[in-house]
Amino acid sequence: MTHPSYSLTRPKTRKTSVVFASPHSGRNYTDTFLRRVLLDSQQIRSSEDAYVDQLFSAASDHGAPFLASNAPRAYVDLNRAPDELDPALIEGVRRAAHNPRISSGLGVIPRVVANGRAITRGKITLAEAHMRINGAWRPYHACLQRLLSESHAQFGEAILIDCHSMPHEALENVGPPGGARPDIVLGDRFGAAAAGSVMDQIEAAFSNAGLRVARNMPFAGAYIAQHYGRPSRKQHAVQVEIDRALYLDEARVEPGPNFTEFQRLLAGVIADLAAIGRPDEATLAAE
């Protein structure tokens, strides 16, 4: 199923409570948007989780749905609350309580991409901000909520794997000095978004594939993990951040030389993640 703002791949038969989703891999940059952009074709993509949708494309082969954004992060950020509006970018927005994401230009309508580079010159209207939110943000989240509700109805629980990538440079100060950096950072908002038993199984799926895993540092999860993670209701959300150096040429924003190999490795991880939510295989989430 393809919507202007997202693509949804459903399995032939739903076999697991796990839902995979990629909110930042959208790369449908319209001509109308690009005409206003100050950045070149590579710079505008620097905040994008480039090709994460391709990395997780095997999800439906294992009985799980996969939802991917078509709208670019530079246009609208699906991992922000719809009211995280930046008064420095959007006309008619009042300054509210301090929000570090908004202050840094990373609200629901971003003002900057990576390294603080401005996306456009000047401000946009509040009407345009609402147009982006209503046209892309709300349809994506409505679809995601439907998928999680379907998991609850069929399996009695829902597990969201929120798929992202992170710049290699973001890992410079992670771990002990001189120690190996993590390949994967899992975020469950320090236990608030997922039960420990679920988090343990997700970590094992990556570590059993030979990947080094860290939790919550430097990324603990943002709006999606916070909003959808309700472990007391057997709804779990875990943000997965993958080091882009494993699969991407970050400078060119193109698949790197190890892309196919890493995609093949990740296919095995996806199979193990999907198995967590299978009633006949899973240790279901903690009461």
Question: Short description, anyone?
Answer:
By secondary structure, this protein is an alpha/beta fold. It has seven helices and ten strands. The chain starts with a strand and ends in an 11-residue tail after the last helix.
What does this structure look like?
The protein is globular, with a radius of gyration of 18 Å. The strands form 2 sheets. An 8-stranded mixed β-sheet has the order 1-2-4-3-5-8-6-7, with helices on both faces. A two-stranded antiparallel ribbon has the order 9-10. By secondary structure, it is of the alpha/beta class. Helix 5 (196-207) runs antiparallel to helix 7. The chain has helices at residues 31-34, 52-55, 100-103, 126-155, 196-207, 223-228, 259-276; strands at residues 2-3, 6-9, 18-22, 66-69, 158-166, 184-187, 213-215, 235-243, 248-249, 254-255. The two termini are 34 Å apart. Strand 1 and strand 2 (6-9) form a beta hairpin. The longest helix has 30 residues, at 126-155. It has one domain: 3-Layer(aba) Sandwich (Aminopeptidase). It is built from 7 helices and 10 strands.
